[in-house]
Specification:
The protein is of the alpha/beta class. It has one domain: Hypothetical Protein Ychn, Chain: A. Helix content is about 35%, strand content about 20%. Strands 4-3-2-1-5 form a five-stranded parallel beta sheet. Helix 1 links the parallel strand 1 and strand 2. Helix 1 runs parallel beside helix 2.
């Protein structure tokens, strides 16, 4: 069963997000929204390391483009607009926020 994990908190405010990312398996996806997009920036943080490891396991990484733009972050992952956000939710069997 494929899962879309939606992360909305800044990396330094919610250390549990790194543990959540470790649950993602091949075929799953991770979407960064709101302050969660700070994890898409080049930072030295356990969440950034967990995202890189998830990508190596075959987990798709996404970030919400309007939130990236609002925070001035250039992401090295696929950016989606609001319509793409809805499409992602529909394309995965379940989503977890």
């Amino acid at each position: 069963m494929s899962t879309l994990f939606i992360l909305s908190h800044a990396p330094h405010t919610d250390p549990a997000q790194a543990r959540t990312v470790k649950l993602a398996r091949e075929g799953d996806g991770i979407l960064l929204i709101e302050d969660g997009v700070y994890a898409a920036a080049p930072i030295d943080h356990p969440l950034a390391e967990a995202l890189a490891a998830a990508s190596e396991r075959g987990v798709a990484l996404y970030a919400l483009q309007p939130d990236l733009r609002a925070r001035g972050i250039a992401a090295d992952m696929q950016a989606v607009d609001y319509g793409g956000f809805v499409d992602l939710i529909e394309s995965y069997e379940r989503s977890v926020h």
